[in-house]
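Posting here for the record, re: NAP.
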Amino acid sequence: MTEGSSPVADVDAVVVGAGFAGLYLLHRLRQKGFTARGFESGGDVGGTWYWNRYPGCRCDIESVQYSYQFSDELQQEWTWSERYASQPELLAYIEHVADRFDLRRDITFETRVASATFDDDTHLWTIVTTDREGEEETVRSRFFLLGSGVLSTTSIPDFPNRDDFEGDTFHTGRWPHEPVDFSGKRVGVIGTGSSGIQSIPLLAEQAEHLYVFQRTPNYVVPARNRPLTADEVAELKADYAGFRARQWERPSAFLFPFNPDSALSVSDQERFEQFERQWDIGGLPFLGAFGDLLLNAESNRLVTEYWQAKVREVVDDPAIAELLIPKGDIFGGKRLCAGTNYLETYNRSDVTLVDVSGAAEGAAGIEYFTSTGLQAAGQHYELDAVVFATGFDAMTGSVVAMDITGPDGTTIKQQWSNGADTYLGMAVHGFPNLFNTQGPGGPGVFVTMVTGIEHQSDWIVDCMSYMRDSGYTRLEATAEAQENWVNVVDEAAAQSLRPKSDSWYTGANIPGKHQKFMPYIGGFPAYRQHCQASADNDYAGFNLS
Ligand code: NAP
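Prediction output follows.
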């Protein structure tokens, strides 16, 4: 033992984050008799749904699926009001879960984990936290569990003179808690990903004039949100377990009408009718129209053509319609967006779409801010407020923001600078007794989030129980197992068209970030089999001591 190091753990586990992942980890740890402390930078529980409060913010995965299933009592007592839950309803749900399972008592809010260092003599992590006043606390823990979020580290590009702007600025992922009134204001939105697409129609309704600065258009399908009927809810609750079991068998753990046939196997008319049926269902299930839309380039071209015709039908001005159509991008390569009145919003006379792609001859993108607005595409726009819908340093951002140091002195930031390699998406060679959730190498962002979280958290806490029962105090993924898993992840990615698009899945949205398709896209059932095979073989792929 090194001089001064304590062999005693304060807790069995430190959990970072109090969103869906952190809360369920705390619950599961308590159930299995482990002591734990949670740290959360926000003022309360909720994670994504605590921070993202922008107008129109809601989940585009159906609420009856985007929810916990570990407790049937919870499933029975909670009733979702809409097909897609709004942010306030999701936050109310998470707060209810925290109350019902008394989870807040183990969480310290408004406190960040600044650093975590593994001591190879004691097999303990020393974790230093900092609160809002800068007060530090040190906690020693056997395990370090991360639920710090896939899309939680906001990104605002380094636009020249950004600080000169004297109007109000907002990031969709750090929206104020008090209401923001844009009435009578000239508002600029930068970014047309999911967050921009959800907020733009509502911002347009409020603002005196809305300017949308679009670098790349996105594929968007109508969400078709609606209230859930009492009959639908009753039917679901009569057999929630059966519904969940069917959900688990789907590659994305998301149940929706899915046609496995190829788009090339039917006549033009049949294909059109099938696209129409899924279009009417609305939302991400549109991708279920045919089984090979993301596997076969020709099928993808056909769905793209269908979608382009829809845009030209909805948008009155043909020049604006053309601007809203992605050029040469895979349909669904970037995450498909589900919108409500998004395309229709560009028919309003008080909305201007500004092309900042720099694609047109002589045109520039966003050039610089001034004290009164934004110089973009060769013109100055006078603005009272700017909304950055510019996304996140996804999948790795919240992990590398902590100074996590393994026994050989390497930080996870250093190790991941050439690619975020993991074993099973949860463990990292060189970082013993650390588990991540929903991170790179895992299926997280391609699986209904809450379902994926429950599966990984159960696996992690079962692994900790196995170690406790077997007298092990140290576990580390082997270099070989990690390399093999990276190959599995890469082979799955190679089957899909998705990696061909630049997106936050590949890290392309963050300048200088190592680029590689990060998620495991082989499907939830296959992923579960890989995890189960390791567990069944005394946690194969790990060195235990
Ligand atoms: P995003 O998809 O990464 O979109 C960011 C937008 O900002 C893009 O349009 C991007 O343009 C633009 N942008 C970035 N840098 C720029 C620059 N320098 N100049 C001009 N434009 C720039 O981020 P997001 O919309 O926040 O969504 C991220 C993810 O969060 C989604 O894919 C989804 O998984 C999740 N989300 C989910 C929901 C939901 O309903 N469940 C809602 C919101 C978000 P480029 O494309 O040209 O880079």
